[in-house]
Amino acid sequence: MKKYLVLIILLLSTVMGGMASVFAQGSALSANRNTALRCLKLAENCLLAKDWSNALKQADLGLTYDDSISDLIYVKAAAQINQDKTKANVLNLISQAFDKNNWLGYNKNRARILYADLLSDTGLYSRSMSVLDSNPLIYSADAEFIRIKNLYRMGDEESINNARLKLNTARRVYPDDIRFPTIFFMFEYMYMDYVELSGQKYEIPEIVNTVASYYIAKLPDYSSKHEELELYAAFFAQKEEQVRLVKAIEAKHSQAHPLLSLLALKTGLYSDAQAMESFFAACGESVSLRCLDTLVLNISDPEVQKSLMEKLLNYQGKLYIDDNMDLQEEVEISYETGRPKEINYDKNNDGVKDVSVACDFGAPLIVNFEENKSQVLYAAYPSVSKVSFLMENFDFNFLQGEFNFEPFQLTSDPIISSLGIDFYLAEFNQTYQLPLQEELILKSSSVSIPITERYGACVKYNTIDGNLVYANFYDGDFRYAYCDFNSEFPIVRYVDFDNDSFFETTEYYSLAEDKSLYNAQSVEAIFGPVLGEYQIYLQKVMIDRNGNTCSEFCESYQENNGKITLWDNDDNGVWDCQYIRHPQKEGDNLIEENVFFDTNGLPLINLSVIDSIPVKMMYKEQEVMIYAGQSDHIYWIEDNGSPEMEEEILESSKHNAMQGIINLIVYKGIRISVIKIGYDYFCKILPDSDLPEPAKDSQTAQEIDEIEEIEEGAEE
Asked: What b/e string do you get for 596-628 counting C-beta neighbours within 10 Å, with b at 16 or more?
C-alpha cells in the first residue's frame, strides 16, 4: 500500500509541476502582451500629437515585447512615412501588419487607408482599390480621395470619366476638403497641357467645366490654405475671369511661381522677356519638363528665343519628368552646361532609385541598377565595356562594340529643338533589365568571378564567342592556378598550393557520366557557377613537389566514393605504396586495400580491409594469417604476441611510426617488425638469429624483407 501511495504522490507532483510551468509561461506571455499594449497606447498618443520620433520609439519598444501585434507595426509605418522614409520601406512594414492580421485596437481601417494610398503612389492601382473595397467597404473622404487618384492614374478614358463623376459627387459631400479641388485641377491641367503641347486645341469636357466652375467660385475659401490651387484653377476660368485671377494672384503673392509666369504669358499680362525671367527666377535650380516645354512653346519673340536658347545651352540644375502622367516625377536629370550629368529613375515612385546614371558631358559612363545591384560601364554609349554584379562580385568584360545595351534613349526634346538646339532627355525603356549572366558570358571577352576555394579568391575566364579559352585563379593579386580550355576533356588545372610560384599540383577534370561523381558545391567552390552546366568532376590529382617530372603523389577518383591513391616516398619514379577504396553503393560493405611495393614496383604486402576490419594479408603473393591483438588497432601476423609486447609497440610507435614504413622493435630480446597502415599496426615476431642485431631505426619494407631473408637463411 505504501508503494502505491508513494507512486500517487510522485505522479501528482509531476502533473502539478507541469501545470505550474504552463501557468508561469502563460503569465509571462500575458505580462509581455500587457506591456506591448501600454506601448501601443503611448505610441498612438504620440502619433496624434505628430511626435513621430517618440511614436516610432514606443512602437519599436512594444514590438520587442510582442511582435505579433499588427497595430504596433501600423503605428511604426505611420511614423516612418512622416519621417521621410522611403515608400518602399513603409509599404513593406504595412504589408507585414496585414500578414500578421492581429489587430487589437481600432487601427485596421486607418491602416487600410495608408496601405491603399501607398499602393496608389507606387503604381498598384487595382490592388489599392481592392484594399478599400474589400469587406467591409471603407467610405470616407480619405478613401474617396484615394479612389479618385487611382482612377485618374489608370489613365484610360473610362477611368478618367469615373474620376470626374466621383469628383462631381465629392464636391457636394466634402465641399470644404481642399484635397478634392487640388487633385481635380492638377490632373485636368496636366491633360490640357498635354494636348496643347502636342499642337492641338483643347476642348474642356462639360463635366470638367461644371466641377471647375464650382471650385473656382469657392476659391476664396481655399486660397489661404493652398496658394497653388488658385494658379491651377485659373487655367479653367473664362478669359475675363482668368485675367482678374492672375492679377489678384500676382498682387497677393510675394514669391513667384512658374505657373504664374505661364498664366501671365498666356493672358498677355507678361511680355515674353518678363515671362522667361520670372519663370527661371521662380524655378530656381529645378524645373519640370512640362512647364519648360510650355514656356518654350508660348515664346515667340526671336530675341527672347535666342536668350532662352543660351539659357538652356548653359543650364545648370535639375529637370523633373512625369513620364506616366500620375502627378509624380519618375525621372530626375541633373544638368551641367546644358548636358546631363546625372540621371535617376524611380519607376514606381517608392523612393528607391531603380536606375542611376553618371554622365560625362551628356555621355553615359556608369549605370547602376538597384534591383540586382549591378553596374554597367560604357566605353561609348551604348557599347558596354564592363558589367559588375556588386553583391556577387561578378565582372564581365567586353570588347568595343561586342555588347550594346541601351536601358534608355538619350533623345533631344522636340519642343526645345524648335529653338535650334539639342537639349537631351532620358527616355527609359519599359524593360531596362540586364540580360541574364548566362547570356552575358556569350558576349564577354573575360569574366571575373569570386570563388570559395580560398578566402577572397577569384577566377578570371578569357572567352571567345562565348567559349571558355583560359582561366587564371587569383588570391588577391597572386596567381595561384591556371587552366587551359582549348583542349577537349579532361580539363587540366595547374595549382601552386604552397604559394612558392611553382605549380606543383596537376588536377584533371572530366565529365561526370555517373551522377555519384558530380558534386556541384565542390565544382562551384573552384570554378564558380560558370562550368555548372558541364557537370565535371575531379578525376585525378598528381603532385610533383621538386619539379623533377616524377610525381610523389597521385590520387584518382571513381564512382560511389571510390578512389586510388599512390605514393612515391623516395621520389625514384617507382610507386612505394597504394591505397584503394573500392566503390561503395548504399548497403554495400566498405572494401579497402593497402599495397606496398618493392624496389622493382612489385607488390610486397597487400592488406584487404572490410568495414575497417583487416580480413586478408598477402606477403610476396602468399597469404599469411592475421590475428587481432588484445589491444585496439594491433594485429599479429602468423603468431600472436603478448599484451606486454602490444603495450611496448604502442608506446614505441606513438611518435615515430610513419605510414607504410616498417619499424624494428626489440622487447626482452624478441625482435618485432611493425608496419603502420591507416590507424592499425601489423606486427610480426621475427625468429631468433645469431647475426648482429640490426639498427632500430625505421626501415623500409624492402630493407626488412632483406633482413628476414638473411635470418631465414641462417636458420636453415
From this structure: bbbeeeeebbbbbbeeeebeebbbeeeeeebee
